[in-house]
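Work Package 3 (structural annotation) set out to generate three-dimensional models for the target panel prioritized at the project kickoff. During this period the team completed the workflow that converts sequence records into C-alpha cells, so that structures can be stored uniformly alongside our sequence database. As a representative example, we reproduce one entry of 170 residues exactly as it appears in the project archive.
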Amino acid sequence: MRAKQDRSTLQVVAPLAGTVVDLADVPDPVFAGAVVGPGLAILPDEPAPGDLAGLPTGGRVVVVAPCPGRVSGVYPHALMVQADHDRSVLVHLGLETGQLEGAGFDVATSDGDRVERGQPVLAWSPAEVRGGGRSTLCPLVALQAQPDDVVLLVAPGDSVAEGQPVLLWS
C-alpha cells in the first residue's frame, strides 16, 4: 500500500441527484455504523422522463460513476468502483434491495469495465423500491477508509446534483 502522502486526493461525486442524509441516520446498522467505511447517503429526487446514454429513464433514476476507475463489483442494486489499487467506492441503491433480485434495476456496465466519473452505469425505479416497502436511501461509501481520510463537501439536508463533488478522500 502506498503511503497516504504519496497518493492524490480522490474526488467523489454524487452518483444521483437528491438530498444528503448523514450516514449515521441510515436505518441499516452496517451503513449507520460505518462498518464498511465513511460516507453519506442520498435520498434521490423524483425522476424525470427521457433517455440517457441508452438507459431508459421514464420513471427511473440514472446513476453515474462516482469516480474514475475499474468496476470491481456490479449488481443490479449496487456498484463498486476501484479508483486505484487501495481505494474503492460503493454506491448502494436503496436498502434491502438485493432481495429484489434485479427487479426495477438496469445495469449498463460489467465487472472489469473502465468507467469515468459521471458515466451512466445503472438506472433504477425508486417508486418500485418504495412500493415494496423499502427505503430509497442510497449510501455512498469510501470502502474501508479511515474516517479522518474522508472530507465531506456537503452537509445533511443539502441538495446535490448528479455529478456534484461530495467527498474528498486523501
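The longest helix spans residues 126-131.
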